[in-house]
Design brief:
311 residues; 2 domains; 52% helix; 15% strand; binds uridine-5'-diphosphate; binds magnesium ion
Length: 311
């Protein structure tokens, strides 16, 4: 098998069939062999039955369907897809046709023509989103590249084509809080970037609200950087120095000019200031501890309810 398409699907009832047909159309002219691993990430619409029908209607098309027992998120869906992919090359692609099969073919050709390249990653130069969102994303990349141990390319998507050895490496990373961009960067290998333009979504709506994206960004920072923990130490240190200096200033004012301090205001200021810092730093530490806690429980990354796969 030359290619495995990994397709995470969450409420994509109106997209999966068209996605399948479009991909068939584009790749049938090539002479490659390919399979599909559709991962139904606990959809609440008819995605499951649409996929089952696809599986039954096209018995020769090498379709595998992994049905999750609930929604575990795209990251877990990609992991399940990788586990079930048998191809020598793997393509992670969305079901909504924003990422075109034509681009996937271009990426595969790039892999073929450049034997040294292990992974092709599609990135968007021009984003289809508002200015504010773009600015936020840019700020996120600036920040994470400053503090993380690995490099993140701005605009890089999860739309990737890579060799099986990259898949094996990614599968070895069994962390519960998955952040694909970081994981693919962490495993290394030769990565080439191809520019692409995301299409409009075919049907349905995006599952990423600004709040979900924000949470995801925080998750990415925490997964690949311990800098926030150091922030806690730095802020703690600075505020201690500040309070010592302030103590001496007050002492000197009292001893030399006999100025009395308005006790209540000062106390209130100091208490709120330090309580704020303490809560902030405890919060940061808490975030990491929460993740350690979840990781030591060794929960599986996903639970599959049913897997449709031909022997
Ligand atoms: N997706 C998923 N689980 C989720 C959310 C999304 O499997 O919890 C899938 C979704 O079906 C789609 C892909 O991930 O195939 C990208 O999602 P979406 O199109 O909502 O993201 P966007 O393109 O807006 O970034
Ligand atoms: Mg999309």
């Amino acid at each position: 098998m030359d290619i495995s398409f990994i397709v995470p699907c969450y409420n994509e009832e109106d997209n999966v069939e068209l996605f399948f047909k479009e991909t068939e159309r584009v790749f049938s002219a090539t002479g490659y062999s390919w399979q599909y691993v559709f991962v139904n990430d606990g959809s609440s619409d008819a995605t499951r039955s649409v996929l089952k029908k696809l599986y039954e209607d096209y018995p020769d098309s090498h379709i595998t369907v992994v049905n999750f027992s609930r929604n575990f998120g795209k990251e877990s869906a990609i992991y399940a897809g990788l586990q079930n992919a048998d191809g020598e090359h793997i393509c992670v692609i969305d079901a909504d046709l924003q990422q075109r099969p034509e681009v996937a073919l271009k990426m595969y050709r790039h892999l073929e023509e450049n034997p040294a390249c292990d992974c092709v990653c599609a990135f968007q130069k021009q984003r289809r989103e508002g200015r504010l969102m773009s600015a936020c994303k840019l700020a996120f990349y600036k920040l994470i590249n400053k503090i993380a141990e690995i490099e993140f390319k701005s605009g890089a998507s999860d739309f990737r084509f890579f060799k099986a050895k990259v898949k094996d490496a990614v599968l070895q990373m069994e962390e519960y809080h998955r952040f694909s961009k970081g994981i693919f960067s962490w495993v290394g290998f030769q990565v080439d970037y191809i520019e692409y333009e995301a299409d409009e979504r075919n049907a349905g709506e995006s599952k990423w609200s600004p709040f979900k994206l924000f949470k995801y960004a925080i998750s990415g920072i925490i997964a690949f950087s311990t800098a926030p923990l150091h922030i806690a130490t730095v802020i703690g240190g600075i505020s201690t120095i500040f309070s010592v200096i302030y103590f001496f200033i007050t002492l000197i004012r009292k001893l030399t000019y006999n100025i009395n301090v308005d006790g209540f205001t000062q106390l209130a200021l100091i208490i709120t200031f330090f309580c704020g810092i303490m809560l902030f730093t405890i919060g940061i530490i808490g975030e990491y501890i929460a993740r350690i806690y979840q990781q030591v429980k060794k929960r599986p990354i996903y639970i599959a309810d049913e897997i449709l796969k031909k022997k």
